């Protein structure tokens, strides 16, 4: 099963690309990914659609990166068993650079150094291969979009480490730190990777910061995912409920890609997470403090201390530095 959610904060001006969800049935291989066009650094107009509506560099960058990731995945499947290099993240970097660089405007800018980017976007992707009893995967990312594994016993666990100076998930909610690396057309970037393997059944999640960056604590993103799952009758309604939930609290475009592997159907998936949904609701949602309440700050830090060990257990080490 798979679920994709895509929302715009301002109708007709959303800069996230649509989520990428591709599964190759003969090999059991697939990719789930999200792309968040970085509107702050890529706000300048980059093209005008036939209807006359201008589109920003961030809008273009996210969609070009999505196209590159999808074509890269198809190349890796076609090459399977032949020992080629298309499956390496460096090949994905090259493919993205090859598509983005020719689209540069060519205009010089006097804006100070590290602020402005051409066609900038983040990416969080999971490239997986399903076996009989386990799924092997690589998380691939640039910027501050995130990939996770979701389990009934440990909840939501991050598989990526944000490319920001501050990587504490709670502090990021307070500070909104700038990114140190994004996919773009005008300077080198990197795509980091981390390998992992999990027993089946397994749920993989990719999300842009519109989903997780506007909640009171990191645990509340998991609560929204599981609450919608508990209330839904099928995967389509799960997507609809997630869309309505994020639209009610976010201040940004938001996109989400979910892949559930190894379940017998939607009811099996929902049943497996029923107890976890209750646990998260009791521990982090019911009776919570509200912003402006005298005890809000202490409550937020207390709940983060309880949630943090499992959430961070699978975060990779500091990513490699660019050469």
Walk me through this protein's architecture.
- With 323 residues, the chain is of the alpha+beta class.
- The protein has a single domain (2-105, 117-312), classed as Phosphatase 2c, domain 1, CATH 3.60.40.
- Helices cover 34% and strands 23% of the residues.
- It contains nine helices and twelve strands.
- It has helices at 57-79, 89-100, 169-175, 209-212, 219-231, 235-249, 266-272, 274-285, 296-312; strands spanning 2-7, 20-24, 29-34, 45-48, 54-56, 123-130, 134-142, 146-151, 155-158, 192-199, 202-207, 254-261.
- A hairpin with a 4-residue loop joins strand 2 (20-24) and strand 3.
- Helix 1 (57-79) crosses helix 2 (89-100), helix 5 (219-231) packs across helix 6 (235-249) and helix 5 crosses helix 8 (274-285).
- The N and C termini lie far apart (39 Å).
- This is Serine/threonine protein phosphatase.
- It comes from Actinomadura graeca.
Spatial gap, N to C terminus: 39 Å
Question: What is the rounded Rg?
Answer: 19 Å
Order of secondary-structure elements: EEEEEHHEEEEHEEHHHEHHH
Helix content: 25-40%
- Give the overall form: globular
Strand order of the largest sheet: 1-12-11-8-9
Total number of distinct structural domains: 1
Give the amount of beta strand, in percent: 15-25%
Low-confidence stretches are 108-113
Q: Class by helix and strand content?
A: alpha+beta
By CATH reckoning, the class would read Alpha Beta
What is the CATH superfamily label?
A: PPM-type phosphatase domain
Give the biggest sheet: 5 strands, antiparallel
| CATH fold category name | Phosphatase 2c, domain 1
Please tell me the CATH architecture by its name: 4-Layer Sandwich
Number of strands: 12
Mean pLDDT: 89
Count of alpha/pi helices: 9
């Amino acid at each position: 099963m798979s679920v994709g959610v895509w929302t715009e904060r301002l109708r007709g001006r959303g800069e996230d690309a649509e989520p990428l969800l591709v599964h190759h049935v003969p090999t059991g291989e697939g990719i789930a990914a999200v792309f968040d066009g970085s509107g702050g650094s890529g706000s300048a107009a980059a093209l005008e659609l036939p209807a006359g509506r201008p589109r920003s560099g961030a809008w273009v960058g996210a969609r070009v990166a999505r196209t590159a990731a999808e074509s890269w995945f198809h190349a890796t499947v076609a090459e399977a068993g032949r020992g080629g290099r298309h499956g390496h993240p460096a090949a994905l970097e090259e493919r993205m650079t090859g598509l983005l660089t020719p689209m540069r405007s060519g205009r010089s800018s006097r804006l100070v150094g590290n602020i402005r980017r051409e066609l900038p976007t983040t990416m969080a992707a999971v490239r997986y291969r399903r076996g009989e009893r386990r799924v092997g995967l690589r998380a691939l990312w640039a910027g501050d979009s995130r990939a996770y594994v979701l389990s009934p016993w440990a909840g939501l666990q991050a598989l990526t480490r944000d490319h920001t100076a501050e990587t504490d998930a709670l502090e990021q909610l307070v500070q909104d730190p700038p990114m140190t690396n994004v996919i773009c057309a005008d300077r080198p970037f990197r795509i980091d990777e981390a390998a992992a393997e999990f027993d089946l059944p397994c749920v993989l999640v990719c999300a842009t910061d519109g989903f997780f960056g506007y909640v009171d604590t990191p645990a509340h993103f998991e609560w929204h995912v599981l609450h919608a799952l508990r209330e839904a009758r099928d995967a389509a309604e799960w997507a609809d409920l997630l869309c309505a939930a994020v639209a009610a609290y976010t201040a940004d475009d938001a996109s989400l890609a979910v892949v559930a592997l190894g379940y017998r159907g939607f009811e099996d998936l929902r049943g497996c997470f029923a107890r976890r949904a209750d646990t998260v609701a009791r521990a982090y949602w019911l009776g919570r403090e509200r912003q402006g309440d005298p005890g809000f700050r202490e409550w937020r830090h207390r709940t983060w201390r309880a949630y943090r060990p499992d959430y961070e257990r699978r975060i990779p080490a500091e990513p490699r530095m660019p050469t």
